[in-house]
TrEMBL record:
Descriptive protein name: ABC transporter ATP-binding protein
Annotated family: Belongs to the ABC transporter superfamily.
Entries under PANTHER family matching the protein: SPERMIDINE/PUTRESCINE IMPORT ATP-BINDING PROTEIN POTA, SPERMIDINE_PUTRESCINE IMPORT ATP-BINDING PROTEIN POTA
GO molecular function: ATP binding
Pfam family, one: TOBE_2
Start and end residues of each ABC transporter domain: 4-234
Top-level taxon of the source organism: Bacteria
Keywords, comma-separated and alphabetical: ATP-binding, Nucleotide-binding, Plasmid, Transport
Originating organism: Ensifer adhaerens (Sinorhizobium morelense)
Length: 352
């Protein structure tokens, strides 16, 4: 059995079902992100795991023990919030030692553990300061140390980086991952930021309208999105109209060109479907037998730094493609006539 097991979890507030048949198995030591837009129910699932919210139905088990009806303070869970939620009148060391004091740990053991935690978060000199004397990033590290000090079985992080600026966000997310790995603790991380979720997670749960649309590794979620929502929410995507020629053999017409997809389709001849492709799969030029070649005109060029995103108008639709910046080769200009090629095997037919 999985270490953290969520089965058929449901939550309604009045008549509104905000979490619907949510199922998930998390292995010990795994780092799992809940990714989804605002209001999709990810925080509500996290709060039910923490014990701050009672499920309408379903079960949550941690290490074989059912905790569904158990009070939050009896679940052995550590939680970090977006707002840090440090006690303003306690020092950093007292904040970190708070849970140990509640658990009636001895003074010497508490001091030792607080010292270990200060080292773990890289702030060994700051135990005597008060929260208002720390930067946002430092406060969030202290909140992490406070959550970890009582040695919880599970660490829950609710958008812990959202209040921080971009640079601090990236360095702290790497640090959270390092600490989680070092301790081997099972963690759930809630975020609406797809780059954050993809960059640090073992697996990502993409949540949409209270349902887990897809659970997979970042690689699977990005390259094999199970639904149209996942494909559009995670990363940039080209959606291209095509007409079915023969569904059983996967033949379609795309931009006036017949294309044989690797997969059978649903749909009658002449029916319009949409095909998805990531911009990095599309290239300028390069015609070979595994690629569909379409001619078009460059409609926009976005210089993003290491990557240049080029938008090409092709037979009444747009195809975006990414190329790497090369210092000795400026990008083509808007209005240039070009050929774009798309590999057959990377064209995805998406479920609704
Ligand atoms: P966000 O990132 O904005 O927090 P979320 O995906 O975490 O979004 P939740 O906070 O889980 O979403 O909320 C899901 C839905 O449940 C929302 O529509 C929200 O308004 C509603 N909701 C959450 N808590 C309550 C509550 N205590 N009473 C009534 N409705 C609630």
């Amino acid at each position: 059995m999985a270490f953290l097991d969520i089965q058929h979890l449901e939550k309604s507030f009045g008549p509104t079902r905000v979490v619907k048949d949510f199922n998930l198995d998390i292995e010990k030591g795994e780092f799992v992100s809940f990714l989804g837009p605002s209001g999709c129910g990810k925080t509500t699932v996290l709060r039910m795991v923490a014990g701050f919210e009672t499920p309408t139905s379903g079960a949550i088990r941690i290490d074989g023990r059912e905790v569904t009806g158990l009070a939050a303070n009896r679940r052995n869970i550590g939680m970090v919030f977006q707002s840090y939620a440090l006690f303003p009148n306690l020092t950093v060391a007292e904040n970190i030692g708070f849970g140990l004091k509640v658990a009636r740990e001895g003074k010497a053991a508490t001091a030792r553990r607080v010292g270990e935690m200060l080292d773990l978060i890289g702030l060994p000199q700051l135990g005597g300061r008060y929260p208002f004397q720390l930067s946002g990033g430092q406060q969030q590290r202290v909140a992490l140390a406070r959550a970890l000090a009582p040695r919880p079985q599970v660490l829950l992080l609710d958008e812990p980086l959202s209040a921080l600026d971009a640079k601090v966000r990236i360095s702290l997310r790497d640090e959270i991952r390092r600490i989680q790995r070092d301790l081997g603790i099972t963690a759930i991380f809630v975020t609406h930021d797809q780059e954050e979720a993809l960059s640090i997670s073992d697996r990502v749960v993409v949540t949409h309208r209270g349902v887990a649309d897809q659970v997979g590794t970042p690689f699977e979620i990005y390259n094999r999105p199970a639904t149209r929502f996942v494909a559009q929410f995670v990363g940039t995507l080209n959606l291209l109209d095509a007409d079915v020629l023969d569904a059983t053999t996967g033949k379609v017409r795309l931009g006036g060109v017949p294309v044989a997809l690797d997969q059978p389709l649903n749909g009658r001849p002449g029916e319009r479907i949409s095909l998805a492709m990531r911009p990095e799969s599309v290239e300028l030029g390069r015609s070979d037998c595994d690629r569909v070649v379409l001619s078009g005109e460059i409609a926009a060029v976005h210089f993003l730094g290491s990557v240049i995103r080029i938008k090409v108008a092709v037979a009444g639709q747009f195809v975006s493609l990414d190329t790497f910046n090369q210092p000795d080769r400026p990008p083509p200009s808007v209005g240039t006539t070009v050929e774009v090629s798309l590999p057959h095997r990377d064209l995805l037919v998406l479920a609704a």
